[in-house]
Design goal:
Blueprint: H1 3-9, E1 12-14, E2 20-22, E3 28-31, E4 38-41, E5 47-49, E6 56-63, E7 75-76, E8 80-87, E9 94-97, E10 100-101, E11 104-108, E12 112-117, E13 123-130, E14 136-146, E15 150-151, E16 160-161, E17 166-169, E18 172-173, E19 177-180, E20 190-192, E21 197-200, E22 208-217, E23 223-233, E24 238-242, E25 253-256, E26 260-264, E27 269-274, E28 279-288, E29 296-302, E30 306-313, E31 321-326, E32 332-339, E33 350-357, E34 362-369, E35 379-386, E36 392-399, E37 419-422, E38 428-433, E39 440-446, E40 452-459, E41 464-472, E42 478-485, E43 494-499, E44 505-511, E45 521-524, E46 530-533, E47 538-543, E48 548-557, E49 560-561, E50 564-570, E51 573-578, E52 585-591, E53 600-601, E54 604-608, E55 613-615, E56 619-622, E57 628-629, E58 633-634, E59 640-644, E60 650-654
Parallel strand pairs: 7-14, 16-23
Antiparallel strand pairs: 1-2, 3-4, 5-14, 6-8, 8-12, 9-10, 9-13, 11-12, 13-14, 15-18, 17-21, 19-22, 20-21, 22-23, 24-52, 24-60, 25-26, 26-27, 27-28, 28-59, 29-30, 30-31, 31-32, 32-58, 33-34, 34-35, 35-36, 36-57, 37-38, 38-39, 39-40, 40-56, 41-42, 42-43, 43-44, 44-55, 45-46, 46-47, 47-48, 48-49, ...
Length: 656
Amino acid sequence: MSIAEKLSKLGLGVSSQGVVSASKGGTGITSSGAEGNVLVSNGSSWTTTSGGSGPKITQVQVTNSQYNVLDDTAVSISGGYIKITGTGFVTGCQVIIGGAPAISVTPVGTTILNCQVPAQSANSYIVYVTNPDGGTAIAVNGLTYSPTPTWVTGSTLSAIESGIAVSVQLGATGANVFSVQAGSQLPPGLTLSSTGLLSGTVTISSNTTYSFIIEAVDTELQEIPRTFSVTVVVIFYGTIEFNILNDNGLNSSSVVSSDIYYISVNNSGIVAYNYKTNTVVWHKRYVDSLYTTYPPKYYLLQDTLHIYAVSRTNSSRTYPMVVKILKSTGEVVSKASYDTSTPAANIAQRAQTAHINVTAGRLFIGVSIDLSSQYSYDHLALLCINTSDLSIVWSKNRPRTPNGNYWKDSNNYNYKLSLITSNAAGTSLYIAYVPYGNYIYIEKFQVSDGTNLLANKIYQSNTLNYPGAIALDSSENLYVTYGEYNTSSYTVPANIMKLNSSLALQWARSINGATVGNSNELVFDSSDNLYARIGNFNIMKIETATPTITWQAKTYRSGSLSDPVHIALIGTQLFMIPTGSTTGLLVGVLQTATSPVGKTAGVLSYTADTRTLSAITPNYTSDTSSWGSGNYYTGTVPTISVTDITTTTATQSSIT
């Protein structure tokens, strides 16, 4: 007779999951028949025995594969191991969970059965033990199946920085408690909350990788361990002082990649400096035949393998030029110069701004052109260059301004050419520029062919306006700093505005007490916090959603105020090149999360600044600006003389 038939004779029913129901009332059921007495006790552990001397179940426990008892109150839906304790078990007995037989049954004497159980869906099941003679024991709701937690967080955590507070939320579906496995240890300084928040500060002297085991535990006390690894890195903050070049960094430019900081300086030199190992990788000077009186200065741009040095020269009668340089060695790969007008007589052309988009493989140069007399700029030119061979893909030309004036800045003698940036996808190009007049022009182009997509103009008041810097965040919002020129002073506030990708104004703020000038620059971190140098020797961090100033500081060099002329960002390190009357190339390295106020690093120091943001409403209208096709060709490519410089050491002074 089957188990189900035996139970039916006793007035008990069995569901498809093996759940027993009684047709007789009371808190217990006793029935007799040909098979003997059956006792069913209510509650979570009732048992039924068939036959007076048959097997009895007193306990069912979840174990590991070695049959060591766990505190788990359920077994995984993928199957697992249990220990059945009772009496009267004999060799050859059968164990059934619901309607599924155990995969293996190993008696340990007559009181213990070690069993491997099969996979089943989540539920509570009856456990049957049947001896060969037909005697049967039943534990109603004897074994619960439940899914185990599933880790969501990967086993390798992002690197964290020594000395900087960290907070990492671990995640596992189905888990309600997290704990460090017995015998495992977290990195020193970190703690783990029961909700899985890993937090604290690790302070070490050298890069170290730690491994530790965290258990995700559910309500059934099923724990799933995961071995995590995290590298704690020691990052330098302070001052880097070079004893190369008698130069104060006034016209420096820089780019930074994973561990190398590339810096250009006045006398046509470029330094490749490994800030992690405090070594100069290479330092070379590039001198070409075009520049006989003045050595060139360079904007530096980069892709994965190359530096692109876009020439800026003190000479007013030269052509813009691009030199493509290997990052690894500093050797010149190729070069090109661009004659941007005809006829060539009396030309004063300057590559005043440059930008690169690695995704599109394009380099963009803004150029001012003087066809009549020096400092009277008749044309504004925009060149799109292929980074592979330095050929011109397309070019745009604006002869004079819409109001008939020359392209000049508010000083009425110099130029303020287009500021350039592009989106990460490499599809759209944004520029900001100003004619001699009240308006700042902001335009958007299609990278592929230079099609003018959008154009707007803005001015803050009836005074002269000019842009200082532009940058895009990860959502393609455009940020522009701009100022109102005052002929008697430079004390008027600097302004910053946020536009969306359709050039619609989102907000505008005045940075009270700051002024806009050639020293403005904007960079973003991975959270779209904005770091700005806004003249007046000032650097600041701005949270852009509100917006609010997170921290701000004035920069001093050897006790005197020093303008930060160039900034670059990688990870949590903000690189800054300060100027000053003292010669010598310096680099300040700041921690982005915390203010540098009150800290000194060698000859650099910082004090709190008190700029505030106030809302403003600029005049903002659409524009119908039009650009013509350029008429440009590659000019004579000069000979480049590359010279190694041997006096290339650097000293690091940590912030204290």
